[in-house]
Protein backbone atom coordinates (compact mmCIF):
# COMPACT_ATOMS: atom_id res chain seq x y z
CA UNK A 1 0.00 0.00 0.00
CA UNK A 2 1.28 3.48 -0.88
CA UNK A 3 2.00 5.88 1.95
CA UNK A 4 -0.61 8.61 2.47
CA UNK A 5 0.36 12.03 1.13
CA UNK A 6 0.18 15.14 3.28
CA UNK A 7 0.56 18.78 2.29
CA UNK A 8 1.33 21.23 5.09
CA UNK A 9 1.04 24.85 4.00
CA UNK A 10 3.13 27.19 6.11
CA UNK A 11 5.21 24.29 7.34
CA UNK A 12 8.73 25.64 7.79
CA UNK A 13 8.43 26.61 11.47
CA UNK A 14 6.25 26.40 14.56
CA UNK A 15 3.05 24.38 14.46
CA UNK A 16 3.39 23.69 10.74
CA UNK A 17 6.85 22.18 10.96
CA UNK A 18 5.98 20.15 14.07
CA UNK A 19 2.90 18.81 12.26
CA UNK A 20 4.89 17.94 9.15
CA UNK A 21 7.47 16.05 11.19
CA UNK A 22 4.82 14.13 13.11
CA UNK A 23 2.99 13.15 9.93
CA UNK A 24 6.30 11.95 8.49
CA UNK A 25 7.04 9.97 11.63
CA UNK A 26 3.66 8.28 11.24
CA UNK A 27 4.51 7.10 7.74
CA UNK A 28 3.18 9.80 5.44
CA UNK A 29 4.95 11.31 2.46
CA UNK A 30 4.96 14.97 3.50
CA UNK A 31 5.12 18.03 1.27
CA UNK A 32 5.58 21.53 2.65
CA UNK A 33 4.58 24.75 0.87
CA UNK A 34 5.96 28.05 2.12
CA UNK A 35 7.06 31.46 0.84
CA UNK A 36 10.49 31.65 2.44
CA UNK A 37 13.25 30.36 0.20
CA UNK A 38 15.83 30.50 2.99
CA UNK A 39 13.67 28.47 5.38
CA UNK A 40 12.92 25.89 2.71
CA UNK A 41 16.63 25.62 1.96
CA UNK A 42 17.42 25.17 5.65
CA UNK A 43 14.75 22.50 5.89
CA UNK A 44 16.34 20.52 3.10
CA UNK A 45 19.38 20.22 5.35
CA UNK A 46 17.63 19.38 8.63
CA UNK A 47 14.67 17.38 7.28
CA UNK A 48 15.58 16.17 3.78
CA UNK A 49 12.63 13.76 3.69
CA UNK A 50 10.17 16.67 3.86
CA UNK A 51 9.52 17.80 0.28
CA UNK A 52 9.56 21.57 -0.05
CA UNK A 53 7.67 23.78 -2.51
CA UNK A 54 8.06 27.54 -2.71
CA UNK A 55 4.60 29.10 -2.95
CA UNK A 56 2.47 31.73 -1.25
CA UNK A 57 -0.64 30.17 0.29
CA UNK A 58 -2.63 33.24 -0.74
CA UNK A 59 -1.69 32.75 -4.42
CA UNK A 60 -4.39 30.54 -5.90
CA UNK A 61 -2.49 29.71 -9.08
CA UNK A 62 0.78 28.99 -7.27
CA UNK A 63 -0.93 26.64 -4.82
CA UNK A 64 -2.83 24.95 -7.64
CA UNK A 65 0.49 24.30 -9.37
CA UNK A 66 1.95 22.79 -6.19
CA UNK A 67 -1.07 20.52 -5.73
CA UNK A 68 -0.96 19.45 -9.39
CA UNK A 69 2.73 18.59 -9.08
CA UNK A 70 2.05 16.45 -6.00
CA UNK A 71 -0.93 14.61 -7.46
CA UNK A 72 -3.42 13.23 -4.95
CA UNK A 73 -3.33 14.76 -1.46
CA UNK A 74 -4.80 12.78 1.43
CA UNK A 75 -4.33 15.29 4.23
CA UNK A 76 -4.19 19.06 3.73
CA UNK A 77 -3.10 21.05 6.78
CA UNK A 78 -3.11 24.85 6.58
CA UNK A 79 -1.06 26.54 9.30
CA UNK A 80 -0.71 30.00 7.76
CA UNK A 81 -0.70 32.96 10.15
CA UNK A 82 0.11 36.63 10.26
CA UNK A 83 1.49 38.87 12.98
CA UNK A 84 -1.05 41.71 12.71
CA UNK A 85 -4.57 42.35 13.96
CA UNK A 86 -4.07 43.14 17.66
CA UNK A 87 -5.04 46.46 19.21
CA UNK A 88 -7.87 48.41 20.85
CA UNK A 89 -10.86 48.91 18.58
CA UNK A 90 -10.62 52.71 18.75
CA UNK A 91 -7.14 52.60 17.21
CA UNK A 92 -7.52 49.63 14.89
CA UNK A 93 -6.06 50.52 11.51
CA UNK A 94 -8.21 49.26 8.64
CA UNK A 95 -5.28 48.75 6.27
CA UNK A 96 -3.50 46.69 8.90
CA UNK A 97 -6.60 44.59 9.50
CA UNK A 98 -6.99 43.96 5.77
CA UNK A 99 -3.40 42.72 5.73
CA UNK A 100 -4.22 40.43 8.66
CA UNK A 101 -7.18 38.98 6.76
CA UNK A 102 -5.00 38.56 3.65
CA UNK A 103 -2.30 36.76 5.61
CA UNK A 104 -4.62 34.28 7.30
CA UNK A 105 -8.26 34.08 6.23
CA UNK A 106 -7.83 34.73 2.51
CA UNK A 107 -4.70 32.56 2.44
CA UNK A 108 -6.57 29.68 4.10
CA UNK A 109 -9.46 30.04 1.67
CA UNK A 110 -7.25 30.27 -1.43
CA UNK A 111 -5.24 27.23 -0.36
CA UNK A 112 -8.37 25.14 0.17
CA UNK A 113 -9.77 26.18 -3.21
CA UNK A 114 -6.50 25.44 -4.98
CA UNK A 115 -5.90 22.01 -3.44
CA UNK A 116 -9.52 20.82 -3.41
CA UNK A 117 -9.48 19.28 -6.93
CA UNK A 118 -6.52 17.15 -5.86
CA UNK A 119 -7.85 15.91 -2.50
CA UNK A 120 -8.58 12.21 -2.12
CA UNK A 121 -12.29 11.42 -1.66
CA UNK A 122 -11.48 10.12 1.82
CA UNK A 123 -9.10 12.96 2.54
CA UNK A 124 -9.19 15.78 5.06
CA UNK A 125 -8.66 19.51 5.44
CA UNK A 126 -7.39 20.83 8.77
CA UNK A 127 -7.24 24.56 9.48
CA UNK A 128 -5.67 26.50 12.35
CA UNK A 129 -7.74 29.14 14.13
CA UNK A 130 -7.04 30.57 17.59
CA UNK A 131 -8.59 31.11 21.00
CA UNK A 132 -9.23 34.78 20.16
CA UNK A 133 -12.13 33.60 17.99
CA UNK A 134 -14.04 32.44 21.07
CA UNK A 135 -12.69 34.39 24.04
CA UNK A 136 -13.44 37.94 25.21
CA UNK A 137 -9.91 39.31 25.40
CA UNK A 138 -9.67 43.12 25.29
CA UNK A 139 -7.61 44.39 22.38
CA UNK A 140 -8.21 41.34 20.19
CA UNK A 141 -11.34 42.33 18.22
CA UNK A 142 -9.41 42.48 14.96
CA UNK A 143 -7.52 39.21 15.27
CA UNK A 144 -10.64 37.58 16.74
CA UNK A 145 -12.50 38.48 13.54
CA UNK A 146 -9.73 36.94 11.43
CA UNK A 147 -9.63 33.68 13.39
CA UNK A 148 -13.41 33.60 13.69
CA UNK A 149 -13.67 33.79 9.92
CA UNK A 150 -11.28 30.85 9.54
CA UNK A 151 -13.13 28.73 12.09
CA UNK A 152 -16.50 29.64 10.55
CA UNK A 153 -15.46 27.77 7.41
CA UNK A 154 -15.38 24.42 9.18
CA UNK A 155 -19.01 23.34 9.56
CA UNK A 156 -20.35 24.48 6.16
CA UNK A 157 -17.35 23.00 4.34
CA UNK A 158 -17.65 19.72 6.25
CA UNK A 159 -21.23 19.45 4.98
CA UNK A 160 -20.51 20.72 1.48
CA UNK A 161 -17.38 18.68 0.77
CA UNK A 162 -18.38 15.37 2.42
CA UNK A 163 -16.98 12.74 2.51
CA UNK A 164 -13.86 14.92 2.63
CA UNK A 165 -13.51 15.85 6.30
CA UNK A 166 -12.97 19.43 7.44
CA UNK A 167 -11.83 20.41 10.94
CA UNK A 168 -9.79 23.05 12.74
CA UNK A 169 -7.63 23.39 15.82
CA UNK A 170 -8.05 26.48 18.00
CA UNK A 171 -4.82 26.97 20.00
CA UNK A 172 -4.22 29.44 22.78
CA UNK A 173 -0.75 30.60 23.78
CA UNK A 174 1.86 28.53 21.96
CA UNK A 175 5.62 28.95 22.37
CA UNK A 176 6.55 29.37 18.69
CA UNK A 177 8.51 31.89 16.59
CA UNK A 178 5.27 33.96 16.36
CA UNK A 179 6.47 35.52 19.63
CA UNK A 180 9.98 36.26 18.37
CA UNK A 181 9.41 40.03 18.42
CA UNK A 182 9.51 39.88 22.22
CA UNK A 183 12.96 39.72 23.86
CA UNK A 184 13.67 36.29 25.32
CA UNK A 185 13.43 37.39 28.96
CA UNK A 186 10.18 39.31 28.40
CA UNK A 187 8.67 36.31 26.62
CA UNK A 188 9.67 33.92 29.40
CA UNK A 189 8.20 36.25 32.03
CA UNK A 190 4.96 36.66 30.10
CA UNK A 191 4.58 32.92 29.56
CA UNK A 192 5.29 32.20 33.22
CA UNK A 193 2.64 34.72 34.31
CA UNK A 194 0.12 33.41 31.77
CA UNK A 195 0.71 29.78 32.76
CA UNK A 196 -0.24 30.61 36.35
CA UNK A 197 -3.64 31.86 35.12
CA UNK A 198 -4.39 29.00 32.76
CA UNK A 199 -6.42 26.09 34.15
CA UNK A 200 -3.93 23.70 32.50
CA UNK A 201 -0.98 25.63 34.03
CA UNK A 202 0.90 25.00 30.79
CA UNK A 203 1.95 27.02 27.75
CA UNK A 204 1.60 24.81 24.70
CA UNK A 205 4.52 23.82 22.53
CA UNK A 206 4.26 23.48 18.77
CA UNK A 207 4.45 19.72 19.30
CA UNK A 208 1.42 19.81 21.62
CA UNK A 209 -0.69 21.43 18.90
CA UNK A 210 0.79 19.22 16.18
CA UNK A 211 -0.32 16.12 18.10
CA UNK A 212 -3.94 17.27 18.05
CA UNK A 213 -3.70 18.48 14.45
CA UNK A 214 -2.42 15.14 13.21
CA UNK A 215 -5.08 13.26 15.16
CA UNK A 216 -8.00 15.11 13.58
CA UNK A 217 -6.37 15.16 10.16
CA UNK A 218 -6.00 11.40 10.10
CA UNK A 219 -8.95 10.11 12.14
CA UNK A 220 -11.79 9.13 9.79
CA UNK A 221 -14.51 9.79 12.41
CA UNK A 222 -13.85 13.50 13.02
CA UNK A 223 -15.41 16.20 10.84
CA UNK A 224 -17.06 19.59 11.27
CA UNK A 225 -15.22 20.10 14.55
CA UNK A 226 -13.11 22.89 16.00
CA UNK A 227 -10.90 21.38 18.70
CA UNK A 228 -10.08 23.83 21.48
CA UNK A 229 -6.45 23.41 22.53
CA UNK A 230 -5.99 26.58 24.56
CA UNK A 231 -5.16 25.26 28.02
CA UNK A 232 -8.46 26.71 29.23
CA UNK A 233 -7.67 30.30 28.21
CA UNK A 234 -11.26 30.85 27.04
CA UNK A 235 -12.47 30.05 30.58
CA UNK A 236 -10.50 32.68 32.50
CA UNK A 237 -9.41 36.30 32.21
CA UNK A 238 -5.98 36.59 30.64
CA UNK A 239 -5.90 40.40 30.91
From TrEMBL:
| Oxidoreductase keyword on record | yes
Whether Oxidoreductase counts among this entry's keywords is: yes
Supply the SUPFAM superfamilies for this chain: NAD(P)-binding Rossmann-fold domains
Signal peptide, first to last residue: none
Enumerate the GO terms in the molecular function aspect: oxidoreductase activity
Which superkingdom? Bacteria
Enzyme class, top EC level, equals: oxidoreductase
Assigned keywords, A-Z: Oxidoreductase
- EC number(s): the record gives 1.-.-.-
**Family label:** Belongs to the short-chain dehydrogenases/reductases (SDR) family.
What protein does this entry describe? Answer: Putative oxidoreductase
* The organism of origin for this protein: Nocardia aurantia
Amino acid sequence: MNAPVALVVGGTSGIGLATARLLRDRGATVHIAARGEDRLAALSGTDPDLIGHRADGADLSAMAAVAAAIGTVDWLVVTLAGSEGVGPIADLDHAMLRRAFDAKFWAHLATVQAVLPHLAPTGSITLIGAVTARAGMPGTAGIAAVNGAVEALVKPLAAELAPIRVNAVSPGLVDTPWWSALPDEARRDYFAQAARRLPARHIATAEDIADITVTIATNRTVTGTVVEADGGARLVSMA
